[in-house]
Write a structure and sequence with these properties.
This protein is of the alpha/beta class. Helices cover about 50% and strands about 15% of the residues. It is globular.
């Protein structure tokens, strides 16, 4: 029993040790030309965010691109605001999206936008995102015709303690995925900071040929990789997209439940690693009660290694945390893991942008 309880501790220590000694790969610039790029944004009731997103795109160092915004039946002033913005910027376009019986939500929006886009590659981001001024240039610079997917880095803006723990969680998760990506092991993609080759997208048959999923970025990524296209993950300041944290625990749990739909399609050993990482925080209080001294020692070593990874990588991205943030994150993960386990057991449908998905 005690041995079983300690297994997740050993696994976590091993993963953290590997991450702490392995610096993320830096890709040299492979693209010497400036291909025409189409930035695609799905929008639904984003009047408080969309203009800031478009302003950040209007300030890009890269000039050879267009922006297409698809309005997915918004009932606020999103469309009018974007329409006014587009009237002042010739590169920007907005369209009303027709509802499709086969494709739903964001998938339907992106599918229709790709038909209008003229770029050699598509840059996908969200309406509540603001990007680095060198974002387009950074993503395109490491792309060539052999690469199907380039994944950027997303930074969760800090404010409250709840924002901070989500920010650390995002960074640490992306760092683990980056470690595997550098070893050519495909894991996942996040659609708020993603470059897709137009040829790769067409080769998989577009979204119309991919089974519908509430994790459309995950499904598209794996469909492209399965066709033999290579992929890269950029872990640089210039590739940053900035997003907001989930404001409440209920919304965070709902977001993560949606993400688990994609995780179900991972390889068995990746699902096993995710499960052990999750199990670590569930087991920790039990192990602390049964074996307090060994558990404290292992947990402290794990926390130190994890802190080294997080602080170093945040610094690499021009960001920072304090020690208290990292200590708070560990406490939060114990509580969150228990709540998430309970949430998964509830018969609650996935809610995404105000729509229910069974």
């Amino acid at each position: 029993m005690i041995f079983v309880l300690l297994i997740p501790l050993f696994i976590s220590l091993l993963i953290l040790f590997l991450l702490s000694i392995k610096q993320p790969t830096i890709f040299s610039t492979t693209n010497k030309v400036q291909p025409f790029v189409s930035v695609l944004i799905a929008m639904r009731n984003e009047e408080s965010n969309i203009i800031a997103c478009l302003e950040s795109l209007a300030q890009q160092s890269y000039s050879n691109f267009e922006v297409w915004v698809g309005d997915d039946d918004s009932n606020d002033h999103s469309f009018q605001l974007v329409e006014e913005f587009c009237a002042r910027h010739a590169q920007f376009h907005v369209v009303n999206i027709e509802q499709d019986t086969n494709l739903k939500g964001k998938v339907n929006v992106l599918n229709q936008l790709t038909k209008k886009a003229q770029g050699e590659c598509f840059l996908l981001t969200d309406a509540d995102i603001q990007v680095n001024p060198y974002w387009v240039e950074s993503m395109v610079s490491v792309w060539d015709e052999r690469i199907g997917v380039v994944q950027g880095t997303t930074w969760v803006e800090k404010g409250t303690w709840f924002d901070i723990v989500q920010s650390i969680d995002w960074l640490f998760s992306q760092r683990m995925i980056k470690y595997l990506s550098d070893k050519k092991i495909p894991v996942t993609a996040w659609g708020n900071n993603l470059l897709i080759s137009k040829k790769a997208y067409q080769e998989v048959g577009t979204y119309e040929n991919i089974p519908f999923s509430v994790t459309e970025d995950f499904s598209l990524f794996h469909a492209i990789v399965q066709k033999g296209w290579s992929f890269r993950q950029v872990f640089e300041t210039t590739s940053l997209a900035f997003t907001q944290a989930m404001p409440t625990m209920a919304e965070l749990l709902a977001q993560r439940k949606r993400w688990t739909q994609g995780a179900k399609e991972l390889k068995w050993w990746l699902k096993g690693l995710l499960f052990l990482h999750f199990l670590y925080y569930l087991v920790l209080p039990i192990s602390l009660f049964l074996l307090p001294i060994p558990t404290i020692c292992f947990a402290f070593i794990k926390w130190v290694l994890q802190s080294v990874v997080v602080i170093r990588d945040a610094f690499r991205l021009g960001q920072k945390y304090i020690i208290w943030d990292l200590f708070l994150y560990e406490i939060f993960q114990v509580v969150y893991s228990l709540l998430f386990l309970c949430y998964l057991c509830l018969p609650i449908s996935v809610i995404w942008k105000g729509r229910k998905y069974n």
